[in-house]
Amino acid sequence: MTASNIVYLFLGVAAIPFIYYLLALYSSWQFFMRAHKSRQHQDYTPPVSNLKPIRGLDAEAYENFASYCNQDYPDYELLFGIGDGDEDVLEVIEKLKRDFPQRRIRVVHVSGHTAANDKVVKLARLVSEAENEVLVMNDSDVRVRPDYLRSVVAPLRDPKVGAVTCLYVSTQEHTFIQKLQSIGMFCDFYPGIMVAWKLDGVKFAFGQTIVTTRKHLAGFGGYTAIQNRPADDLLVGRLVAEQGLEVELLPYTVETVADFKSFNEFFFKRLRWMTVMRHMRPWGHIGLIFTQGLAWSIAAVAVHPSARVALLYLGGYACVRTAMTWLIGVWGMKQKGLWKKMVLVPVWDAWALLIWLLSFGRRSIRWRDVDYRIRGGMLVPVAPPAPQK
Q1: pLDDT tens across 164-176, in order?
Q2: In this predicted model, what pLDDT tens digit does every residue of 32-44 receive, in sequence order?
Q3: Is residue 83 within 8 Å of 388, Cβ to Cβ?
Q4: Are the C-beta atoms of residues 334 and 251 closer than 8 Å to each other?
Q5: φ, ψ for residue 227 (rounded to 5)?
Q6: Burial of 99 (C-beta count, 10 Å sphere; 0-12/13-18/19+)
């Protein structure tokens, strides 16, 4: 094979990310077109138990919790699962009870366990304490609109639907890191989700919203069965889907308050997640190399430095990535001011490539001040855990 043939072969390989980008564009367009055409009936309102596992006091916790007290929904209860050392959260919940006396709000204390996933242990206890069959679960940093419960519960009217999840956006974009995280959702995270939706269906859920029933949780052994596993939200969606049920991904969006206060926190949170994904989906994780359009485009220009190649690869990269971010963020999710952050797309891509590469060198993750290794899909503490009092 001649040198010129090798160059052209490399240029062909470097074009693979553009196939992924076009598929992401098509999948996203189909998802939001279907969403824009469909009209969800919101008159299906069975009694609901809204479960919230809490650890520590999040920023704007009262505003987050209060949004669940303002729901346009006829019959629901709010259950908070807390552990020892959460006195500050108790003060916020007591204020909620005073400000919303019409709401049924309960606190469930959970302690005395050695399981790796404290959040899942709390959810298992909350499920056992809940009064109703239909369960809505959220992370504590989520804020919702008054039509939230009506919107996310409605798909369960169809007996084929076993779980519901929805999209989410950030409430804060004051710092550079917050803006970078936000643009990464629209240009990287959601395109991957849309491709998965198109090719394989929804076999996952997001912790920002999981709606299901006791029956469907019991179908895989409930939260107790996954209390030592990472990525519990993803697992719930997968385990419900494995029962032959559909997991509905709604275009409805909730808001999240950033849970990182510094660059280091953001860096290690992202690295932890990518390391978990490497263990849970090893081949899919390796395949991410063919979604790195910026790196391949720069390599293509380096291998064949010409104006034509630069225009095709770098110019094509800029056009497709801008179109993808606009399609999902502006047209699909109705986010304002996104154009101002488009310049951050290549910054995110370079950042994402770095994190992806570093994830291959990680043997453990640090989560909630404890170091774990992931073996056989399980979280194994590097040192024996102390019991949760």
Answers
A1: 999 999 887 788 9
A2: 998 777 666 778 9
A3: yes
A4: no
A5: -75, -10
A6: exposed
